[in-house]
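Sanity check

After download, print the first record. It should look like this:
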Amino acid sequence: MSLVIRLARTGKKGERKFRVVVKEKRSKRDGGYVDLLGWFEKSKDFKNRKIDMEKYNYWVSKGAKPSSTVQQIVK
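Expected structure tokens:
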């Protein structure tokens, strides 16, 4: 089972809100997930976010690969 850290869309139609989740690579974007790491609202400066970095670092150490978008949000 290969795990990936990526965004899952949530909220009302037209809103740009996402959950940062750990899930299996082959699963659907908005399907079930293994662990919830935080949330993110899309904006130009990535300021509307809350991510548990302790959990993030734990999953990266276990082999989960973050998507390119998640890498930009975290740094």
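If your output differs, re-run the checksum step. Summary of this record's structure: The chain has two helices and five strands.
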